[in-house]
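Meet our chain:
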Amino acid sequence: MILVGTTMVLGAAPATAQRYDPRYPVCLQRWQARGVISFDCSYTSMDQCRMTASGLSAMCQENPYWQGPSGRNSRRRQGGAS
């Protein structure tokens, strides 16, 4: 029974922590081997991200956690006025 459980755990695709860096407005989403999807939120523009994504199994998207240059979105999330 233990052997079956161990085999199932080791056979699963590796889990990776996804991190959205709120300092950057654009993220690169990349599909890798064995169904692994990774996010790299370190791009300052869509064009910069697209240059990196070119030729890869990847796409660029807006970072949903980007706070803007002065943290403008943090007030909206807390229910305060903009």
